[in-house]
Specification:
Its main location: membrane. The protein is mainly alpha-helical and 163 residues long. 44% of the residues lie in helices and 9% in strands. It is extended.
């Protein structure tokens, strides 16, 4: 929604305002800003592209999964409809399960942003000190046999009721 006379602070605005204190508060030059913007865009694009490639590879490999998606699309689309509408997306439970399983099985990144511990605590017999930095190994969590039955298998029904 566009609101006339409104200002939206963007990533580029933050780069234009950035000063490097270790270099006498030097501002970034045009080449540095372009490089940082490129990294920002590529980070989102590469992970999305990789996730979609893995999901599509699994859909092609598992014909039964592909068949359920096709049946679901045909069931949601009205007679003669050729286009899926945004308001119908919530009806695609099988497709959502396929995406969720694809992200579980092949996470686009293996670590999420690190977290800071605000107070000491104990986890599985380990003492985590205050101010420690914690990294979560997403892939290891997603492939844990204590949490997932046959974690290395592609089974979207895990994310469906009863699965």
């Amino acid at each position: 929604v566009h609101i006339p006379n409104s200002f939206h602070f963007s990533y580029v605005d933050s780069l234009l305002d950035l000063e490097l204190p270790e270099e006498n508060n030097r501002k970034l030059d045009e080449e540095e800003i372009t490089s940082l913007c490129s990294e920002f865009l590529n980070a989102g694009t590469d992970t999305t592209s990789t996730a979609l490639q893995w999901i599509m590879a699994n859909v092609v490999k598992h014909q039964d999964v592909q068949g359920r998606i096709v049946d679901e699309i045909n069931g949601v689309l009205g007679e003669g409809d050729q286009e899926i509408r945004e308001e119908d997306l919530h009806k695609f439970t099988n497709l959502k399960a396929v995406v969720m399983e694809g992200l579980r099985r092949h996470p686009p990144v293996h670590f999420v942003l690190s977290h800071a511990v605000t107070e000491e605590f104990s986890l599985d017999g380990y003492v985590i000190p205050k101010d420690a930095t914690i990294n979560f190994a997403v892939a290891d969590i997603n492939w844990d046999t204590k949490t997932w039955e046959k974690p290395m298998e592609f089974r979207p029904e895990r994310f469906l009721p009863g699965g």
